[in-house]
């Protein structure tokens, strides 16, 4: 799962026994060499789908990590893009990567340290995206999270993110994710501070309801690059909430 440049088992153990913020501060220098970094195929598919929905003025990457998602915003936004994360270590890595690309054409890039549950923006963006971060929020936190993104968007603005279909019941991946979540729940029962990271708490039905209650009109777009399941449903969708 990890390259030779990724974290060691000892480093991962220390990170897992830390808070979410501290864990990601420690992981940040090697994060892009782990499977936790959103694969390029998801970023590219999202960017292609958003291009078909139009071009945007300003964009926000919620829980931006080391900044991989900014490549999507830079392709569809014309004015300014902003990455927000609560990990200082992640933002430092993102700034460094952006500095290496400083000569590239595109919108202005800025970075803000903040908790996604208390965003310091109001009516500021035309598009918000997020990649791979929702497992760090418990289901009961989603209304606050989605409400903050809603307030950060201008009227008619979009909140978009890819969401994969759950693996088939009985598949190795299903049992792997189930086991991971079980281990994390036990860890959080016996160890403080908690490290919130679950893979099976972000089901489409609940997410769609929370988005609608936050004030979004929700549309689903199949990402055909990932194919379809035997029943014909897409293996991955782009969830798009439009601020009413």
Question: What structural keywords apply?
Answer:
244 residues; alpha/beta; Rossmann fold; 2 domains; 7-stranded mixed beta sheet; 8 helices; 37% helix; 22% strand; globular
Can you tell me the residue ranges where pLDDT is under 50 for at least 5 consecutive residues? Answer: none
> Helical proportion?
25-40%
What is the subunit organization of this protein?
Answer: single chain
What structural class do you assign from the helix and strand content? Answer: alpha/beta
User: What is the total domain count?
Assistant: 2
Strand order of the largest sheet: 3-2-1-4-5-7-6
How many separate helices? 8
What Rg is obtained from the alpha carbons, in whole angstroms? Answer: 18 Å
Basic shape: globular
In sequence order, what are the helices and strands, one letter per element?
Answer: HHHEHEHEEHEHHEE
């Amino acid at each position: 799962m990890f390259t030779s440049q990724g974290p060691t088992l000892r480093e991962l153990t220390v990170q897992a026994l830390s808070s979410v913020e501290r864990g990601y501060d420690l992981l940040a220098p090697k994060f892009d060499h782990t499977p936790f970094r959103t694969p390029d195929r998801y970023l590219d598919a999202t960017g292609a789908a958003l291009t078909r929905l139009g071009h945007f003025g300003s964009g926000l990457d919620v829980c931006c990590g080391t900044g991989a998602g900014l490549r999507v915003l830079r392709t569809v936004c014309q004015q300014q893009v902003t990455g927000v994360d609560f990990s200082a270590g992640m933002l430092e890595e993102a700034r460094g990567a952006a500095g290496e690309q400083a000569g590239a054409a595109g919108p202005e890039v800025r970075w803000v340290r903040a908790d996604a549950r208390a965003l310091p923006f109001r009516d500021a963006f035309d598009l918000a995206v997020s990649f791979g971060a929702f497992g760090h929020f418990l289901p009961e936190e989603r209304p606050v999270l989605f409400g903050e993104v809603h307030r950060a968007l201008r009227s008619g603005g979009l909140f978009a993110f890819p969401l994969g279909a759950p693996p088939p019941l009985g598949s190795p991946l299903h049992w792997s994710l189930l086991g991971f979540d079980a281990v994390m729940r036990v860890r959080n029962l016996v160890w403080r501070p908690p490290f919130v990271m679950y893979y099976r708490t972000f089901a489409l039905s609940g997410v769609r309801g929370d988005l609608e209650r936050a004030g979004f009109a929700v549309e689903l777009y199949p990402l055909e690059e990932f194919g379809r399941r035997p029943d014909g449903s897409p293996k991955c969708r782009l969830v798009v909430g439009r601020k009413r």
